[in-house]
């Protein structure tokens, strides 16, 4: 039977206990990193040969050439046709909502002219080729495909390459159908650090990409860390998190299940409830004990809640918001009366769900905003994945003759002050 950790901000020891609860060791596992370093070194030097070696070893695929790792577009269409009508409708409706939201993020080029005729502006262009990693095999993550591929395509990325492991050759129709719906250009049945290496370095069969997005195992995360700089990354995601702020008037069963919804991801996931109502915390604790045994992933949820879960009694909702801002959670639910009025109090959160009916799970699948969110307190300085992650901006500077005289004086003065004579002369030559 689970006994959730119970804290109160009124206790003298709260700060110490809360600091321990909130802490998460993001240090890289040296054993994993060493293994990944070896795999990436082989991928870089031996290309397809190394890719085949590790795909055969880890995914047990019986392939003779790297070309066999690519799935034809016809296979994606076949997967879409194989779905039930209900599954197909759900994917299509989710995709449409995600498109409708993300289309508003598309950045446009702009420019203006100074009085002297100098042209200044910004040119927005899409990334040319993006690699998308999607966990595969028995696990089905079609939502990962939708959330990563749709913003990329809206940004105008001409070539989107998907890597999805298929252990023992097991292909998931939901994942492949999602790729068909999103217009993924190429799909390779590869996974793990070897997939990240192939996308980052390129092989004879798999082209090098400009950016890699998508979640994965500890080996995938370690590989992404190592190739950053050679290619761009979306983020290095930590365990999933949910923080619920409740005034005590929401059904406790609803809140308990919201906590479960993130805890079932991983034993290291974190689920915390903040409320000024002690009796409500008691009610949620009772709901947790009653509902948990009926869930298929109860062991994972139990481990997560025992290790990193908590019910915290706060002085008031103001204090709850202050704690939320410190934790900068991936998912934050404001399950309170007049929830919108509390939105301005929140500065740090990946996604904010306002009102009692806004369960986090709707954000995972179909509300519209992206579910790829900053974790491990990184919402203090980063944002959800979006169209902007697949676009780049170039500054545009077109100086007129008159502008060269005016700006040259400023540049010469500053360049000489920095002791950079060639800089100064470069501007001076155009002033004569």
How would you concisely characterize the structure shown here?
The chain has 432 residues and is of the alpha/beta class. Helices cover 44% and strands 16% of the residues.
Written description of the protein model:
This protein has 432 residues and is α/β, with parallel strands linked by helices. The chain folds into three domains: 6-25 and 238-367, Rossmann fold (3-Layer(aba) Sandwich); 30-233, 3-Layer(aba) Sandwich (Rossmann fold), CATH 3.40.50; 399-429, no CATH class. 44% of the residues lie in helices and 16% in strands. It has helices spanning 14-22, 30-46, 48-59, 73-82, 85-102, 142-155, 173-182, 192-201, 218-227, 252-263, 278-291, 298-308, 317-327, 360-365, 401-417, 421-429; strands at residues 6-8, 70-71, 110-113, 119-126, 129-133, 159-163, 186-188, 211-213, 232-233, 241-246, 270-275, 310-313, 331-335, 351-354, 391-398. The strands form three sheets. It has a six-stranded parallel beta sheet, sandwiched between helices. Strand 6, helix 7 (173-182) and strand 7 (186-188) form a beta-alpha-beta unit. It is globular. The protein starts with 5 loop residues before the first strand and ends with a helix. The model has no long low-confidence stretch (mean pLDDT 96).
In helices, the fraction of residues equals 40-55%
pLDDT average, as an integer? 96
CATH architecture of the largest domain: 3-Layer(aba) Sandwich
Label the structural class: alpha/beta
Number of DSSP helical runs: 16
**Name given to the CATH homologous superfamily of the largest domain:** Nitrogenase molybdenum iron protein domain
The termini sit apart by 85 Å
Annotated CATH topology of the largest domain: Rossmann fold
The CATH class designation of the largest domain is Alpha Beta
Instruction: Report on the biggest sheet.
Output: 6 strands, parallel
- Give me the side-by-side strand order of the main sheet: 1-12-11-10-13-14
Task: Give the C-alpha Rg.
Answer: 25 Å
* Basic shape: globular
The proportion of residues in beta strands is 15-25%
Question: Domains counted in the coordinates: how many?
Answer: 3
Q: Which stretches of 5+ consecutive residues score pLDDT under 50?
A: none
Overall number of strands: 15
